[in-house]
Amino acid sequence: MWENETEKQQTADRQPRPEYLKPPPAPVSDGPDYLLRAQIAICVVVALLVFLMRQLGMPAFETVRQDYNEAMESGQPPAAQAAVEFAGDLLAGLQARTQTALEQWKQQLEAEKAAAAFAGAGGLFPVKQDSVPEGYSLKDCPVEGELEQPLAWYTVTSEYGWRKHPLTGKKDFHTGIDLANAEGTPITPVRQGIVLKTATNSSYGNYVQVMHSDGLVSVYCHMQYVFVRAGECVEPGECLGTVGSTGVSTGPHLHLELISNGIHYDPAAALGVE
After folding, report:
1. Can you say how many angstroms the Cα of residue 216 is from the centroid of all Cα atoms in its chain?
2. Quick check: 202 pLDDT over 70?
3. Is the pLDDT of residue 273 over 50?
4. Assigned CATH class of 136-271
5. Average pLDDT, the chain
6. Confidence tier at 118 by pLDDT (50, 70, 90)
7. Which candidate in 2, 93, 134, 176 could, as Cys together with 257 as Cys, close a disulfide (CB 3.0–4.6 Å)?
8. CATH 2.70.70.10, the chain: domain bounds
């Protein structure tokens, strides 16, 4: 009896289940879902572009936000094709804006580079205020008596201090005095001293620094040729080099600077220039 009941139960368990009780078939993947990936990529790109528009303050940001709000309220968000077209237009606009910004940045860098080239012989360009730059003074150079003339004769073409730059036309602070003469004219030291440095750069051109007693240093710029070396003792009347137009220069002249105890001063009074 019990055996018959057990056989009946096992037979009932082997009966096929109704269709509605069967689990759904496992999905069969045919490979990556490229459509889904494309949609995700579009969403990421659009979100990133909208974020950039907001950060850059682009007027189109308000338009995009308004269109998005209207689409959400209507329950009909833009189709994938429209989103792609919108993203393309947005990328083109952003590229143009970025190109403009890069061009402006490049122009600014070129202006700063040009300004750096004018520093020294051309002054402390650019100038943002009328106060005397640090390390410079509008006072006469504190030396005892007059210095020897560095040139046999000359014409003062640009004085020390504030001026209109001859190349840029902008206001700057001229760090020395310009003494014009013919190219090749001998340049002599203003006082006995030791050659501290001979060098060349894009602003001064060829130049010589001479250290004198009581903390005075004289600097001779835009030289055509230099005839001395660092460490040599020089006397008034001895040729340091010749007048030239090297570096930032509008013509043959000597740009002379006087530095006393680390401060630039106006050389005019010490040279007897009125």
Report:
1. 35
2. yes
3. yes
4. mainly beta
5. 77
6. very low
7. 176
8. 136-271
